[in-house]
């Protein structure tokens, strides 16, 4: 075990570590012996502003009750200026002294488990409390292991993998108190399960998840257990190698960058593949595991030299856990994971390289912290800004060292820049494929919050991240580009739309088909949606002003094309608008529409419904231009006619989409919303929208560069996918009556087929563009309308679209496909057999909700 | 479920809770506090948020653009001046699910829209009439007596309007 840490001053002391010189605020002066709340003369270290934003201390002249003290101390562990080892021992002594207070004891264990499953950065520290407690009152350790173990067993049974991993980590940190091989025996059993899963299904993802957990547990077990277990770890690593090195078919779809491109920011690494390599390397260099905080086993003894302690602390057999068979894959669909980093492969190493184990260990803890505490972004931001507190001394350089001074200041030591690691981790979550763990807006607000907590330290890192992404945006996965766009515009809207656009001005010369130019155009549109045109223009350098047309400045509604007498059917169009405004009768409106039909027939138009639909929908848009509520009520009133149109003719159906888009061409955001409303009213079918996009709008493929086109298709596909998932969860229920089974399955089969057709259609079309086989594309190439460069860009867009929608299709297949649904039903049946009592109870209550399947397991 | 290790941002505000307490107090004459759980239950399943501190100029489209980041919006009701029928700086956003409403509390409450920090609060559900300001001059009460100038919310408080004119 490592020796005591020295150089505390450097660690959390008075130094300016980037919290914008607010560090003195954080300095904890509570000596944790109860004196903290006593008033005292000369106790001015605290200062008037002390930790105002943290839990305020109770009023003075008031002894903090033990129940509150144990919570505060455990929750705030390691975040003070104290030496971790001293703090940890003090907490152990404190609970020993208050162990006979029932409520304090209960609170202690509740909070202990809470910290383990909610604040992963603190696990080594709370585990150390329990480790030292074993030497002063072994009852505490026994009870802690029981409490954490119970929760672990539940998590294992329910397939709550993240929670399982963290609870297991707690045990790994206690490795020295276990007899024999301790945790390694259990890790071996887990691996046997992986082998079973893999031999049953070579594309199994639960096994992958388990291997990840095993690999992430090993370093913690070795950091605490020491040299004695090196051989065990090696053996385990030898066996995980095959699984970790295996590539699943799904992995082909989750590359954040085009792997063939030289300009990618990072190549593809699977998380477990990387872990395996890093651990193997670490094994060769003697398991230094330098970033994990370590504690001196003899620290308590050194503190009590009189020998009042028992000779040898108690040791225990590792608790027995049951691994259920079949393994419950858990409530969330599992996918292989890619390791993403913006900074890892950059020249100046501010974050661990992908070869270093620290990259995986620290990333894992940051990511879990962010995921678990999504209910309080303020606290997450504080934890992240204090990241260096939770790792061993010298893992990180001082906070907030500017990038250009970083190398010079760190010298040849291996030290990381905590701000870069935080930003890197958040972006890895924002860019997680196939699906992020939380709504993307969580990551948006978390970044905003970090910028607020430590602007001087975080903002420059963020700026470098943005530039790094922008530089390679043309080879990034298109869905990720879209996520970046959405984040970027939202982020700027929280910071007065400040961005140094000037540095991108030279890209304005590029063709609108170029991904960089397309990004700039799209970003401005998104900014305007959250603000207004004039305001956004005022934030731009003059060179960019032409990108925001002057006509957007006026608060007027877009022009109504029928006001121009040149427009065919101008009179009728205007009449329709008046009639709609006056809520004219169905017959009156029909009369006008019939007039259009007559004229159209005279003009030799085959489907007369197309021009009349155009006039009708455009009039609705015009009348509803004032606000979304207005257009909603207009649609509501015209709903019957719209439904009729949609049922009568395919081209008229598509004309509905066309008219909306045409009317709102300068503000595609509004058009996208209206399309969404029409989909909800089932006036439009998803396939209609998609067909309009590809057949009537995209043409030779240039429109694939327009961000809102992607948005429309993406939203439409998401609607279809969500619905299918809902149907599946309606199916996966205990005790669904047979007639309902039949009904649900009927719906599922039909909608699943619909989704497959839609995906197939999108895939075929964009594949044609990507491969240059699209007729219109070939035509425009031959007649010189498109230059060779433009044609190349269009094909590249096709390729990027193709990647996204092939992935979407594969993901949906893996969640709602027959195979997956059958597997879920089998598991449901197995659970019902295994827990007949729980079933009876459920039936007795008359509750049979879809979620209950998982809850029962808890 | 044991308590979380840190506070949650998706709890009803003290305003919503004090409203509940006021309500309970009024009923105290007739019945015990514990017997009026409807309000609690309503918030537990609430899909609606009250959104405050908007600029009078913020549009439905802007609100949609931001709030749909937390889920599909079922209904958006703009708060209006009782007399002018113009936006007066608040709205109700209704989602399809309670979870979306909670996420909105966590991820959007306290962030900016139209360059103002907005406030979100779980709401018991919109009812006709609640879209109108309850201040004397038709807007929200807070805009009657504000003595600092807020260009996004009609300048100075309306009660002082004469003095400043």
Automatic annotation (TrEMBL), chain A:
One of its GO terms (biological process) is nuclear-transcribed mRNA catabolic process, nonsense-mediated decay. It holds the Pfam family MIF4G_like. Residues 352-542, 560-813 form the MIF4G-like type domain. It comes from the Eukaryota. Residues 1-66 are annotated as: Disordered. Gene3D superfamilies: 1.25.40.180. GO terms for molecular function: mRNA binding; RNA cap binding. InterPro entries: ARM-type_fold, CBP80, MIF4G-like_typ-1, MIF4G-like_typ-2. GO terms for cellular component: nuclear cap binding complex; nucleus. Residues 1-19 have a biased composition (Basic and acidic residues). This is Cap binding protein. It comes from Lentithecium fluviatile CBS 122367. The lineage of its organism: Eukaryota, Fungi, Dikarya, Ascomycota, Pezizomycotina.
TrEMBL record, chain B:
InterPro entries: NCBP2 (IPR027157), NCBP2_RRM (IPR034148), Nucleotide-bd_a/b_plait_sf (IPR012677), RBD_domain_sf (IPR035979), RRM_dom (IPR000504). GO terms for biological process: mRNA cis splicing, via spliceosome. The keyword RNA-binding applies. GO terms for cellular component: nuclear cap binding complex; nucleus. Keywords: mRNA processing, mRNA splicing, Nucleus, RNA-binding. Residues 1-41, 129-165 are annotated as: Disordered. It is found in: Nucleus. Its main location: nucleus. One of its GO terms (molecular function) is RNA cap binding. It comes from the Eukaryota. Residues 1-11, 26-41, 141-151 have a biased composition (Basic and acidic residues). PANTHER family: 20 KD NUCLEAR CAP BINDING PROTEIN (PTHR18847), NUCLEAR CAP-BINDING PROTEIN SUBUNIT 2 (PTHR18847:SF0). Belongs to the RRM NCBP2 family. This is Nuclear cap-binding protein subunit 2. It comes from Lentithecium fluviatile CBS 122367.
């Amino acid at each position: 075990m490592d020796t005591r840490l020295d150089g505390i001053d450097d660690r959390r002391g008075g130094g300016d570590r980037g919290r914008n010189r607010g560090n003195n605020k954080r300095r904890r002066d509570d000596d944790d012996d109860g004196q903290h709340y006593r008033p005292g003369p000369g106790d001015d270290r605290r200062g008037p502003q002390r930790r105002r934003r943290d839990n305020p201390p109770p009023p003075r002249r008031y002894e903090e009750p033990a129940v509150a003290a144990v919570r505060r101390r455990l929750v705030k562990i390691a975040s003070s200026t104290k030496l971790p080892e001293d703090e940890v021992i003090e907490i152990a002594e404190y609970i020993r002294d208050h162990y006979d207070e029932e409520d304090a004891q209960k609170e202690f264990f509740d909070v202990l488990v809470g910290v383990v499953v909610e604040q992963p950065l603190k696990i080594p520290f709370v585990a150390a409390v329990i480790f030292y407690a074993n030497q002063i009152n072994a009852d505490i350790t026994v009870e802690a292991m029981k409490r954490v173990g119970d929760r672990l067993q539940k998590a294992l049974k329910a397939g709550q993998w993240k929670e399982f991993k963290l609870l297991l980590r707690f045990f790994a940190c206690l490795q020295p108190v276990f007899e024999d091989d301790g945790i390694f025996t259990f890790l071996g059993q887990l691996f046997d399960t992986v082998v079973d899963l893999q031999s049953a299904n070579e594309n199994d993802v639960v096994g992958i998840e388990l291997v990840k957990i095993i690999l992430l547990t090993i370093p913690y077990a070795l950091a605490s257990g020491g040299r004695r277990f090196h051989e065990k770890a090696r053996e385990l690593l030898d066996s995980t190698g095959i699984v970790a090195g295996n590539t699943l078919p799904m992995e082909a779809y989750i590359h954040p960058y085009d792997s063939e491109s030289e300009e990618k920011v990072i190549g593809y690494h699977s998380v477990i593949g990387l872990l395996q390599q890093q651990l193997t390397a670490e094994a060769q260099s003697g398991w230094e595991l330098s970033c994990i905080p370590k504690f001196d086993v003899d620290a308590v003894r050194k503190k009590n030299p009189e020998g009042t302690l028992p000779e040898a602390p108690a040791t225990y057999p590792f608790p027995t856990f049951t691994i259920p068979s079949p393994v419950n894959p858990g409530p969330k669909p599992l996918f292989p994971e890619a390791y993403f980093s913006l900074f890892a492969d950059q020249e100046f190493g501010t974050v661990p390289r992908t070869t270093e184990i620290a990259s995986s260990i620290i990333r894992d803890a940051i990511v879990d912290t962010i995921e678990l505490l999504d209910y309080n972004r303020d606290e997450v931001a504080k934890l992240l800004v204090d990241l260096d507190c939770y790792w061993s001394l010298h893992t990180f350089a001082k906070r907030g060292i500017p990038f250009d001074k970083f190398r010079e200041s760190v010298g040849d030591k291996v030290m990381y820049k905590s701000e870069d690691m935080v930003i890197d981790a958040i972006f890895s979550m924002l860019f997680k494929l196939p699906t992020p763990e939380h709504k993307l807006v969580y990551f948006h607000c978390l970044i905003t919050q970090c910028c607020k907590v430590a602007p001087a330290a975080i903002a420059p890192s963020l700026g470098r991240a943005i530039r790094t992404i922008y530089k390679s945006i043309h080879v990034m996965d298109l869905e990720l580009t879209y996520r970046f766009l959405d984040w970027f515009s939202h982020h700027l809207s929280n910071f007065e739309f400040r961005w140094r656009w000037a540095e991108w001005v030279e890209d304005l010369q590029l063709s609108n088909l170029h991904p960089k130019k397309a990004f700039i155009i799209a970003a401005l549109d998104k900014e305007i949606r959250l603000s207004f045109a004039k305001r956004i223009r005022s934030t731009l350098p003059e060179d960019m002003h032409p990108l925001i047309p002057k006509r957007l400045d006026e608060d007027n509604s877009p022009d109504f094309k029928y006001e121009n007498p040149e427009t065919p059917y101008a009179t009728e169009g205007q009449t329709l608008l008046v009639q709609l405004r006056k809520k004219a009768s169905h017959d009156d409106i029909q009369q006008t529409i019939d007039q259009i039909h007559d004229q159209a027939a005279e003009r030799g138009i085959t489907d007369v419904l197309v021009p009349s639909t155009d006039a009708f929908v455009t009039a609705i848009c015009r009348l509803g231009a004032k606000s979304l509520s207005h257009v909603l009520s207009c649609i509501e009133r015209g709903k019957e006619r719209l439904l009729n149109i949609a049922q009568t003719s395919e081209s008229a159906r598509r004309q509905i989409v066309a008219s909306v888009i045409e009317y709102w061409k300068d503000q595609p955001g509004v058009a996208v919303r209206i399309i969404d409303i029409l989909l909800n009213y089932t006036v439009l079918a998803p396939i209609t929208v998609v067909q309009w996009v590809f057949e009537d709008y995209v043409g030779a493929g240039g429109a694939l560069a327009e961000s809102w086109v992607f948005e429309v298709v993406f939203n439409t596909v998401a609607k279809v996918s969500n619905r299918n998932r809902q149907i599946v969860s309606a199916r996966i229920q205990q005790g669904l009556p047979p007639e309902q089974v039949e009904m649900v399955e009927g719906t599922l089969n039909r909608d699943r087929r619909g989704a497959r057709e839609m995906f197939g259609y999108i895939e075929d079309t964009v594949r044609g563009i990507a491969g240059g086989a699209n007729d219109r594309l070939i035509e425009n190439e031959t007649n010189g309308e498109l230059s060779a460069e433009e044609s190349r860009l269009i094909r590249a867009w096709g390729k990027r679209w193709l990647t996204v929608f092939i992935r979407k299709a594969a993901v949906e297949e893996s969640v709602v496909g027959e195979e997956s649904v059958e597997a879920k039903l089998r598991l449901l049946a197995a659970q019902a057999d295994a827990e007949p009592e729980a079933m009876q109870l459920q039936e007795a209550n008359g509750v049979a909700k879809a979620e209950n399947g998982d809850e029962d397991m808890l | 479920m044991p308590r979380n290790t840190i506070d949650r941002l998706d709890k009803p505000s003290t305003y919503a809770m004090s409203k509940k307490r006021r309500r309970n107090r009024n009923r105290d004459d007739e019945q015990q506090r514990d017997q009026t759980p409807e309000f609690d239950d309503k918030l537990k399943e609430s899909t609606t948020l009250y959104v405050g501190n908007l600029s009078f100029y913020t549009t439905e489209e802007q609100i949609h653009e931001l709030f749909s980041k937390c889920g599909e919006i079922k209904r958006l009701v703009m708060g209006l001046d009782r007399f002018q029928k113009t936006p007066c700086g608040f709205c109700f956003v209704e989602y399809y699910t309670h979870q979306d409403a909670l996420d909105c509390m966590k991820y959007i409450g306290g962030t900016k829209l139209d360059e103002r920090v907005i406030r979100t609060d779980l709401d018991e559900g919109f009812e006709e009439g609640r879209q109108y300001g309850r201040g004397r001059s038709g807007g929200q009460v807070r805009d009657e007596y504000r003595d600092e100038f807020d260009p996004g919310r009609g300048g100075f408080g309306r009660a002082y309007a004469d003095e400043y004119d």
